[in-house]
Amino acid sequence: MRRVALLLLVAAASGAFAACDDGTPETSPEAGGPIVLTYWTSQNPQERAWAEVLVERWNAEHPDIQVEAQPIPAGQSSEEVLLAAVVAGTTPDLCSNIWPGVLNDFIRAGGVLALDEMPGFDSLMAARTPSELADRFVSADGHVYQLPWKTNPILMIYNVDLFEGAGVTRPPRTYSEYLAAAERVTGDTDGDGQTDRWMSARDIRPIWWQRYFDVYPLYLAASGGQTFFDVDGDLAIDEDALREVYGFFQTLYQRGHLPLSTLQGNAFAQRRIASEFTGPWTAAWLVENAPDLRFDFAPVPVPDGFDGEPVTYGDYKNIAVFSSTQHPEAAWAFARYLVSPEADRLLIETTRQIPIRAGLLDDPALADFFEANPFMRRFAEQAPHTRGVDAVPSLTEVLDAVAQSYERAIYGVETPAEAVASADERIRVIQEWAH
């Protein structure tokens, strides 16, 4: 029922969207003129710069297929903008900001093409995508509607100087080690009686996507990579792992190692926090805006006694060709260009984000880059050990249930066990409504 309501809401919003010409692909070239493709990028400045370079190169080399790049129109989220465009029939030819969690909505609406039916798809996937990740991009009907593009593994960034100054000699691996480091780092640095330095900081408001940077990556690590749902779409939360995560954060907040209020500005760059859970985009920003800050990355902490390969959230973004295109072959050709070796090297150098490409660390063309940016090696090493989100109906509502139960645990309204149980119950109701 909520799914129907969402689609009706999007359909209503799409009326205004359809009236806007900015997002409509130019697919009717004059006789004898070139094919013109519209390509939507994210609004991330580094990604836009990457796209502009590639589009300029492509257009110079392909006078018969010209590409116009533009950022996704502004909206509450890029997913809502794209879904509205699908419903209104105003999608671009292709887009490189596809979140797997919303792909099923596009498929149900008939908005995207099955890329595995395109020429050269199998050889491209075999050559580029790590074998341990390839199956995660196959939809329930057996087709592939997204071309794996990039991943941003969530790791723990830490301030090397703050850790060393507090006597923390290595990045904490377990919850106990993290709590011990937090005891050393957290404190009052100016003597006014108020804590002004913390181990970390998070936005604990019940905002579903915020949980991708605390609860979800630590849950994946604690569960050994078990996502919330199984391959059949049935709820499969490892409740023991989720209780561990809730309990870990509850303890951190109760001991004052994380502030309950939201800190203004970039608290890590300001040296007000010693660590946080984030992706490689933070490194790109810090290199440019805080060049004197010494930092490094390590896997997110795991429960005491955990023995296994650290897994984290991969934050995948992929490429899709929309069914509204009048030139699917041309759009597919450009999509393949966006994941060429040259494009992937430019991506990691320009954006500090990780292409979903096998053998990155063995690429001679990137040897100098990894030597100059050793922290990026951590992300490249972590990339094969990542998970995405489950492509299930009402995923945002599911994550909202997790966010609300997490907030109750943080404030002590519920114990971790009670919070996990209430989240489980609400998710089951959401899934019943969605079906």
Automatic annotation (TrEMBL):
Keywords: Signal. PROSITE patterns: PROKAR_LIPOPROTEIN. Residues 1-18 form the signal peptide. Its main location: periplasm. Coiled coil: none annotated. Pfam families: SBP_bac_1. The keyword DNA damage does not apply. GO terms for cellular component: periplasmic space. It comes from the Bacteria. The keyword Calcium does not apply. InterPro entries: Bact_solute-bd_prot1, SBP. It is found in: Periplasm. Belongs to the bacterial solute-binding protein 1 family. This is ABC transporter substrate-binding protein.
